[in-house]
Amino acid sequence: MQIFSYKPPSIPWLDIRYLDRDIIVINKPSGLLSNPGIAEYTHDCALTRLQQRFKDCILVHRLDCATSGIMVFARNKKAESNLKTQFQDRQTQKTYIAEVDGIFKLQSGVIELSIAADKLNPPKQMVSELGKAAITHYKVLQQKPHSTLVELKPVTGRTHQLRVHMLAIGHPILGDDFYGSEQVMSAAKRLQLHAQSLSFTHPYSGKAMHFNSVHPF
């Protein structure tokens, strides 16, 4: 992942929403990597911060650096395997909130556009018939004069899926410095994308788990 100026927020250092012997759930701030990159300066991330307190912490899934919101981590190999299977088999439920450019004609809909790596501009992604299937449900929550607050529910979990899908239908996410125009980038201080809720089954007890974090914009 290209990061030209990585200055992860230090307050709060960790926002832990749930903790037991099998899992840890956090509310990740925008600007913090989910896991370290190759470069040494990317070592400070959600995973390494958690591992400073809980050495057994294991990454299960990722949020983009600029995206904030709910993440779950495992604390043992059995929990890791169980949770990863839930994500891979689409047994989890994820809801995102985004503020996007423009006015929607329809109040809800489904975006079904395959996504592939943009080999000429890595690590960007793009809509391509040769890519992997990607499906996103959207619903308008609030119409503003020049932008729209939308609820996004991805069925699949492709890299940059929500950012690419919103761009493809003519409504790029405000503050997106990867896919947005100069006007879109300058419209917000951060990417206006937040992982508001996550539902899954507890890997040990089998109990239905649901976590929510109100969007900050």
From TrEMBL:
InterPro entries: PsdUridine_synth_cat_dom_sf (IPR020103), PsdUridine_synth_RluA-like_CS (IPR006224), PsdUridine_synth_RluC/D (IPR006225), PsdUridine_synth_RsuA/RluA (IPR006145), RluA_PseudoU_synthase (IPR050188)
Enzyme class: isomerase
Entry annotation: catalytic residues: D64
Alphabetized UniProt keyword annotations: Isomerase, rRNA processing, tRNA processing
GO biological process: enzyme-directed rRNA pseudouridine synthesis; tRNA processing
Domain of life according to the entry: Bacteria
Gene3D superfamilies registered for this protein in UniProt: Pseudouridine synthase
EC number(s) given by UniProt: 5.4.99.-
Keyword Transmembrane helix: no
Catalytic reaction list: uridine(746) in 23S rRNA = pseudouridine(746) in 23S rRNA; a uridine in RNA = a pseudouridine in RNA; uridine(32) in tRNA = pseudouridine(32) in tRNA
CDD domains, alphabetized: PseudoU_synth_RluA_like
Gene Ontology MF term list: 23S rRNA pseudouridine(746) synthase activity; RNA binding; tRNA pseudouridine(32) synthase activity
All copies of domain Pseudouridine synthase RsuA/RluA-like, residue ranges: 22-167
Stored PANTHER family: DUAL-SPECIFICITY RNA PSEUDOURIDINE SYNTHASE RLUA, MITOCHONDRIAL RNA PSEUDOURIDINE SYNTHASE
Biological role: Dual specificity enzyme that catalyzes the synthesis of pseudouridine from uracil-746 in 23S ribosomal RNA and from uracil-32 in the anticodon stem and loop of transfer RNAs.
Family: Belongs to the pseudouridine synthase RluA family.
Protein's recorded name: Pseudouridine synthase
Organism: Shewanella pealeana (strain ATCC 700345 / ANG-SQ1)
